[in-house]
Design goal:
The structure is a homodimer.
Chain A (H helix, E strand, L loop, with lengths): L5 E6 L1 H4 L6 H12 L6 E5 L3 H14 L2 E5 L10 H9 L3 E3 L1 H13 L13 E3 L3 E2 L10 E5 L2 E6 L3 H20 L4 E9 L4 H7 L1 H10 L3 E6 L5 E9 L2 H19 L4 E3 L5 H12 L3 E5 L5 H7 L8 E7 L2 H8 L9 H15 L3 E7 L12 E8 L2 E8 L4 H23 L1
Parallel strand pairs in A: 1-2, 1-3, 3-8, 13-14, 13-15
Antiparallel strand pairs in A: 4-5, 6-7, 7-8, 9-11, 9-12, 10-11, 15-16, 16-17
Helix pairs in contact in A: 2-6, 3-4, 10-14
Chain lengths: ~425, ~425
């Protein structure tokens, strides 16, 4: 079957000057792929009517659909409407219904509509406005030489809503695409990308042959290493079933030690969730991470039900005074274990979690990258060590997710 | 004077699918602007030889220079070399010197060169390799119909080094551009973008008329609100002098209360620097920020000379037990002040800094966004409050930079 193609044109001199990175086109490209529409070209062009016109004409000439993004605002620099009218060879007319809609939006905010915004109510004769209009900039749709051109504002949340709710369904109908695409992200920790891809090689090959789901890997730092399953089907429930079946297969290969979440939850959410289910509170003692563990845990709303606090002991006298660590080297197994116990005591928590290590760039007490981690659960302390070959920031980030994962595994096994 | 233009073509199907955001083109666009070269179009195209060829031909037809980015790797998907040869109408030949250079790079890493990498040593007849070669992918330069086409790898650090050290100087020479462009970033906190632009309106107008430096604003969250000065001159020292003169003028208008750094230092670096100069140590007590203040301070290497630690008191019993706060509401002036004093005591620090507040999304004790901040310097406690109209994450971030700024101002005034 011939596949339909859509080209994206992003309008704005600020994009060419690098003042704004064009993430809109990337996002649209991803959505097109998910909906089975090909994407061959994406172009950025400045706020110049001649060059926008040439770019749109070329795009209409070589693609089935065109999405032009940006240049729909109320100022004189916003040229997309005018250029579309010119490409269509028609006039712009003021749409009185749009005037009222825009005026009403200002009215709801208790403000008068500036006269400039009248420009936004202008529509090329023969073009339609998109039914979805999240802001004050109406989107446009025009058929030119049998091809469909859509114009959306550059404001990401307005653009996204129009693309998802209006443009993609329209394109799918025109292209005769009835299948639905869905994806599911499993998050993992504890294996490398090449390790995962080796373990899953046979399954990936099998999927290639039967044409089922696809599997992609995405290294995401402190968010873990993501495994994304994508599949296509005729209905939402069919797609969901297929994704769940595939997730079970991947899970049986990788195991729950490696996979920490099946629904895109962060490691912090997973650990806080387990603690909450068990009715356990958590206290942290951290040195090299400097507050990062606490900061990540408290980025989850509702964390206060579980998380009592963290002792950021950046100097050894704080370790001694508050955590009551004995007179041992700061970066050592004994220090980490005493810190975990100290966190429970000082913060009156059921579970203690501690890290100490050398973040660099210069070694102070130990080789750079050496980290000791400890967890205290039910009064029993366990510890482990790792030597990271990374820079300061990554040492801190990888330590954070690793110690949280160690706690997750202990709680899963022991409680 | 007619200005020269350069078009950027980014090659890679993964760019169209949104798997990678094309930040390379944005970065190149910024560099071109800084060097006085116009940028009219930027195009993304997939790994398809016909479409790459059409895109390159069009770019050569309408621009003076073309930079094509990506597709220079060792795999069969890397088509840029082949397409350039086709556009030039010539063969690819193996450059023996390049073979040796690439083999030597592998040798230095103690590895044998895979045969695939021989592809990277192929050069279209009549094209040159760029002299700068940071990785194993050589850059190319070819003159086609009097226009110059440069090819660079998509790996950002390799691409950037080639553009900065090889391509831009070459373009400037060809375009007869001798002037140098430089910029200087002042960081501010405590005023809005519109507030700053109002205060600087007269100066911006004056600069417009005399054609001196330009002033741009960039809101950067926890990094502050940046004011970037850019100017052009015939020599490095002339540019530096002009930037320093302009920085003095901006400084006299905005003042040091607003401007916290003149050389792109972060707020954490500035505060740690002041403390270090004065020989003072710092302790933190934080609730709603959950460790973010400590985490930011310790992201600065060498922070252990000043920063003693942080008590992340996420539950009120921790506030009472470790910080010895009295029996007052958790989010209150009295709590914040007691926490600052408690941080000094518990962490044995000269200076105490504390925040408590309601980060939301649901109000627990106070309205969402209400934050109390306190600093203790020389035993004297000062406090202030703010009500942020933001979401949880921004409330935490803005609180962090605001309380650090409050400490900066106190230390500047009092010590």
């Amino acid at each position: 079957m011939e596949r339909f193609s859509c080209e994206v044109v992003a309008v704005g001199t600020e994009l060419l000057l690098g003042q704004i990175v064009d993430t809109n086109s990337s996002w649209i490209g991803e959505q097109l792929a998910l909906n089975g529409i090909e994407s061959y070209f994406q172009t950025k062009v400045g706020d110049n009517p001649e060059r926008i016109k040439k770019t749109l004409k070329q795009a209409i000439g070589r693609s089935d659909f065109v999405i032009v993004c940006g240049g729909l605002g109320p100022t004189q620099d916003d040229l997309t409407r005018d250029v579309i009218a010119e490409v269509m060879g028609v006039e712009l007319v003021t749409d009185e219904e749009l005037v009222e809609r825009i005026a009403a939006i200002f009215g709801n905010r208790g403000r008068e509509m500036p006269l400039n915004n009248l420009r936004q109510a202008q529509v090329p004769v023969g073009a339609e406005t998109l039914s979805v209009m999240p802001g004050t900039a109406p989107g446009l749709k025009a058929v030119i030489n049998g091809k469909t051109l859509y114009a959306v504002p550059g404001v990401p949340w307005e653009m996204k809503q129009m693309v998802l709710e209006d443009i993609l369904p329209d394109m799918r109908a025109k292209a005769g695409i009835s299948s639905i695409i869905g994806s599911k992200t499993l998050r993992t920790w504890g294996d490398s990308e090449s390790g995962l891809s080796e373990k899953l090689a046979q399954e990936i090959e099998r999927l290639d042959q039967v044409g089922g789901a696809t599997i992609a890997f995405l290294a995401s730092g402190i968010e873990g290493l993501k495994v994304r399953l994508t599949t296509k089907g005729d209905s939402k429930s069919e797609v969901e079933d297929a994704l769940n079946t595939e997730a079970d297969i991947v899970s049986s290969i990788l195991g729950d030690e490696i996979i920490f979440s099946y629904d895109d939850q962060t490691m912090e959410e997973v650990v806080l969730g387990i603690c909450k289910d068990k009715g356990l509170t958590l206290g942290v003692a951290e040195s090299l991470t400097g507050g990062l563990i606490g900061s990540r845990l408290t980025s989850v709303s509702g964390s206060s039900e579980v998380f009592k606090g963290s002792i950021v002991a950046y100097s050894s006298d704080v370790k001694h005074a508050i955590l009551k660590t004995p007179d041992v080297p700061s970066v050592s197994q004994a220090a980490a274990e005493a810190m975990a116990v100290g966190a429970c005591r000082a913060l009156n928590a059921d579970i203690g979690l501690a890290v100490t290590g050398e973040a660099g760039p210069e070694p102070l007490e130990e080789e750079v990258g050496r980290v000791w981690m400890a967890t205290s659960v039910g009064g029993v302390v366990k510890s482990s060590t790792v030597k990271w070959p990374f820079d300061r920031e990554r040492i801190r980030q990888f330590t954070t997710i690793t110690v949280l994962n160690a706690l997750r595994l202990r709680l899963k096994e022991e409680i």
